[in-house]
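Let us work through a complete example step by step.
Step 1: write down the sequence.
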Amino acid sequence: MGKAGRRSLKVLQIHRDFKPNSGGGGVARHIDGLSKSLCALGHSVTVLSPSPEKIVDPYITMEFSFVESFKVLREHDIVHLHGSRSFLSLFFGIICFILNKPYIYTPHCYYDEDRGSIRYLSKLTWDYVAERALVNFSSATILLAESWKSYYKSRNISVDKVSIVPNCVYHADIVARASAAKFKGSTNRSDIGILTVGRIVDVKRIDDVIRVLGSIKHLEVTFHVVGKGAEMNALQALSEQLGLSENILFHGFLSDIQVVELLEICDAFVIASEMEGLPTVIIEMILLRMAVICSKIPGNMAICEKLGISTIFEVGDLDVLRGLISNSRSLKITDEQYQRCVDTFTWESRSVEIESLYFNGVSS
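Step 2: predict the structure and record it as tokens.
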């Protein structure tokens, strides 16, 4: 039995990329934190993925095998599929349907291309066929923010089975990282330090931040870029072109503790994206008491509006972004914002909502 006499469930989490501690992205960290919290509630959790990071405690990871798929599903009470427009999610959704195995579906985010492009049309077709089927046959579909309901309605996807549970982090992990970090007490820093952490891809619009830095003449600003991705070379070339090579530092992948240590010489975290689900990294930064500057998109605003954060700018509005960065030395996360974040965006506070959906799925 689980805690407080509840039934202990065998939960299978499935995602196409699971490397939460080695640059695997926000979805992997979402699953990692949820799995830890479910284990703390007394459940048994396995995360299945192609070439996953090896983890054996408190949950275990398992490498995807086509041959073993039916056997693995039969061994678990409930399946949780993660990631939109994923052949892996669709494959296991079909097997769950065949076996009459209940599953929960969390798409996380939908990234779209310019209307009329081949990729846009292919994604539109997928949504009308595969996504609609995954949602319709699920026990429940979890969206990270209310704004995604409108997206579903625009694709004629039913929201009857939709529950809203925001992206969350495992608070105990954040506390442990902060405790393990070794701060140097450095006074050798620029007037302003900012950072961004995540995939280096065009949807993140990191080039907007670099262009803004080129127009700030009265202050010395250092921009720390943490992560890897397809846009790295282009952004480095842009930095050189604008004469900012010494101001923009590309760190590549850093461990969680190294990121925390980097905060010592930073004043604000900047996310200029044009599209996000509900970014894990914003929640992590707030829980580390780092001020955030965000683009005004639904995924970011789902956090900012809840916590009363007003340092926001319209996507591509470089003038407002320039002002926010120039003033970032004075920005702070208040005690009230911090506590609201703990109450609203941590798995310790919210995992029971997912657990309830699991129990409903198993009993239906």
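Step 3: interpret the result. The first strand starts at residue 10 and ends at 14.
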